[in-house]
């Protein structure tokens, strides 16, 4: 009989990946909590929350994050003015997760194994800001087949991190 494994007995190898997330004005406590949980699950090294009024601490965020906000390192910055040049100076590829007129389906995006990735995520209603899109090296999107052209930011983050870490782990 198949036995379900639990987080204390799983068979997964712990790995850290050279990926940071840049959350562009994502303020929903549920989305913030989900992003923390996903970042922990996929071995993301750091999260940057960009925006004036990003409230990390809330009961809803803590319930959703399930204590991963205590494990994953993060910063809250009022804007990304110096962040992207700083990351680029450290060798990061800056990739926006956004449907644009030049975006590539994420499953076709080829990672340079020697270069860490800064993945920009946009707020649910407005997406990645034009300011950050202009500073990205490239943009990638998730192919969708229904009537809607967008999905919840946490769901999109999970799909993107799966695609990126799959490439990183299958060298």
From TrEMBL:
SUPFAM superfamilies: alpha/beta knot (SSF75217)
BP GO annotations: methylation; RNA processing
Pfam annotation, one family: SpoU_methylase
A single cellular component GO annotation: cytosol
Keyword Nucleotide-binding: no
Keywords tagged on the record: Methyltransferase, Transferase
InterPro entries: Alpha/beta_knot_MTases (IPR029028), rRNA_MeTrfase_TrmH (IPR004441), SpoU_MeTrfase (IPR001537), tRNA_m1G_MTases_N (IPR029026)
tRNA/rRNA methyltransferase SpoU type domain: residues covered: 19-162
Keyword Coiled coil part of the UniProt annotation: no
Source organism superkingdom: Bacteria
Annotated GO MF terms: RNA binding; RNA methyltransferase activity
PANTHER family (UniProt xref): 23S RRNA (GUANOSINE-2'-O-)-METHYLTRANSFERASE RLMB
Name under which the protein is recorded: SpoU rRNA methylase family protein
Organism: Aquimarina intermedia
Taxonomic classification: Bacteria, Pseudomonadati, Bacteroidota, Flavobacteriia, Flavobacteriales
């Amino acid at each position: 009989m198949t036995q379900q494994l639990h987080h204390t007995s799983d068979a997964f190898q712990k790995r850290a990946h050279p990926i940071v997330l840049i959350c562009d004005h994502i303020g929903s406590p549920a989305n913030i909590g989900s992003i923390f949980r996903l970042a922990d699950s996929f071995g993301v090294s750091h999260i940057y929350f960009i925006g004036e009024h990003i409230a990390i601490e809330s009961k809803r965020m803590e319930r959703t994050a399930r204590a991963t906000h205590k494990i994953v390192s993060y910063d809250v910055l009022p804007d990304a003015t110096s962040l992207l040049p700083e990351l680029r100076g450290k060798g990061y590829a800056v990739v926006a997760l956004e449907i644009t007129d030049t975006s590539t389906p994420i499953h076709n995006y080829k990672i340079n194994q020697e270069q860490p990735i800064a993945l920009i995520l946009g707020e649910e209603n407005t997406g990645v800001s034009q300011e950050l899109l202009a500073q990205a090296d490239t943009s990638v999107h998730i192919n969708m087949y229904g009537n809607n052209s967008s999905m919840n930011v946490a769901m999109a983050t999970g799909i993107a991190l799966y695609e990126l870490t799959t490439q990183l782990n299958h060298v």
